[in-house]
Amino acid sequence: MPATQLPAATVMGPVTLVVSDLGRVRPFYEGVLGMAPVVDDADRVTLGARELDGDGYRPIVVLIERPDAPRRPRGAPGLYHVALLMPSRAALAQVLRRLTQVRYHLQGAADHAVSEALYLADPEGNGIEIYADTPKETWRREGDTIYMGTAPLDVRGLLGEVHGEREWRGFPAGSRVGHVHLRVRDLEETARFYQGVVGLDLTARYGDQASFFAAGGYHHHLGANTWESRGAAPAPEGALGLAHYAVVVPTAQDVRDVEARAARANQQATVDKEGLWMRDPSGNMLCIMDAAAAGIKERRAPGSLQAGR
């Protein structure tokens, strides 16, 4: 019988963004944040960070240039932010010092109890969170949920983690996408999809405004809110912003288990060499891929899912 939940070893893969001007956006990811080009083509670039063991690079963000792409209407479903997980608190401190040195605008900073986070946006307004988890044993569990608060970040204490070395050496090795936070039109249908089809657990819910989902006891791999998007229609096809994001599971069988759940739920899905492609009820595209397929650097949504939901 197919599994009903994603494996505990599930992680997030790269996020693909459509941008109008690669020449404007790329210098932020590559120059300000210090990501390295993994795949570099004329109209798209995959950027990432070195693996902790030094063996290659992990893709983090794919930028696709489409100068004529329609603008995403304000309040339409899509990306709220992509959250980049640092390997340590010291690594987060290094990024904060870097952003301070180059005087890049921070939109906010917070202590969420489960993590410490910085908030900013790229030059085209795509939201970014850069965060480090607090020790898992300190997370406050309340039944099946995990407490996530919002308190001021101890910036001075965080910067105190930077010892000795003052030179910026690029985006910290071992960094990856930790979670994706989406704008959605309705939380109930979103929960049915991400719990019943994808196979994530609900880890927190804040009324009818925001829900958080995860695999393996993590605080969240996916967030969803209706703060500005409640009841909104999907964005135009091919709009600027989020094109799709990836969820990486350990094995091909795990992908087939999600495919089986999708079939039972009459959820439209397409399978190709990269994985299982679906749209959530708000039109956000995701790809469930196994760890082997996650090595594929080019991620293009199959034609059968390019239009509609």
CATH architecture: Roll
Mean pLDDT, all residues: 93
Structural class: alpha+beta
Describe the strand arrangement of the main beta sheet, using strand numbers. 2-3-4-1-15-18-17-16
List low-confidence stretches: 296-309
Say which CATH homologous superfamily is assigned. Answer: 2,3-Dihydroxybiphenyl 1,2-Dioxygenase, domain 1
List the helices and strands and how they pair.
Layout (H helix, E strand, L loop, with lengths): L10 E9 L2 H11 L3 E5 L3 E7 L6 E9 L12 E8 L3 H13 L6 E4 L3 E7 L5 E7 L7 E2 L2 E2 L8 H5 L16 E8 L3 H12 L2 E6 L3 E5 L7 E4 L15 E9 L2 H13 L5 E2 L4 E4 L5 E6 L19
Parallel strand pairs: 1-4, 5-8, 11-14, 15-18
Antiparallel strand pairs: 1-15, 2-3, 3-4, 5-11, 6-7, 7-8, 9-10, 12-13, 13-14, 16-17, 17-18
Structural overview:
It contains five helices and 18 strands. Residues 296-309 have low confidence and may be disordered. It is 17% helix and 34% strand. It has 309 residues and is an alpha+beta fold. Strands 2-3-4-1-15-18-17-16 form an eight-stranded mixed beta sheet, with helices on one face. It is globular.
Quick structural gist:
The chain is an alpha+beta fold and 309 residues long.
Short descriptors:
eight-stranded mixed beta sheet, single chain, 34% strand, 2,3-Dihydroxybiphenyl 1,2-Dioxygenase, domain 1, alpha+beta, 309 residues
